[in-house]
Amino acid sequence: MTKTPRNSSADGETTGPNSSPTLCPVARAQDVVGDRWTVLVLRELFLGTRRFEEIQAHTQATPQMVASRLKKLESAGLIERRPYSERPPRHEYHLTEMGIAFHPVFLALRAWGETWFKSEDEEVAIHYIHIPCGQDPGLGPACQACGKTMRREELSGKLSGSFHAERQARLGAFKAGRP
After folding, report:
1. Each residue of 157-172: pLDDT tens digit?
2. pTM, two decimal places
3. DSSP one-letter string for 16-54
């Protein structure tokens, strides 16, 4: 895998793997993905949300927050914009190889949140099936059924009924608030 140093983003902020004044890889990663809104934007991309307004609705962030996070992620090389409309110009956002490589971190955050921040009567928000073995892989990072590492392309996810309803309510409220 070739690592490409990243340059300054549109807002003058330096991003990417070699931009931090420290050699600490945790600090360097934190520079790029270390805030709530950035992680929620990445969550949406992992869930298949591609368009700005849907990302905004599901994260409940302001348009400025979403725009700045998308620009930062694009500048750092985690996502790329792809046009889907010329008139008016509109783009979808897609994970790059670097962005996809964040998936184990996403799974770790999910596992930690499911373990420590939910009551016993709440269901798991996203139910996965590990495609190679056809079983529930658990919270990972290895499948509890077959022991293999959970890879993004080998997982099929389905939102729980309550999480799906929550997301639909957010989207509906967002659309209702539009002029």
Report:
1. 999 999 999 999 999 9
2. 0.84
3. STT-SSS--HHHHHHHHH-SHHHHHHHHHHHTT--BHHH
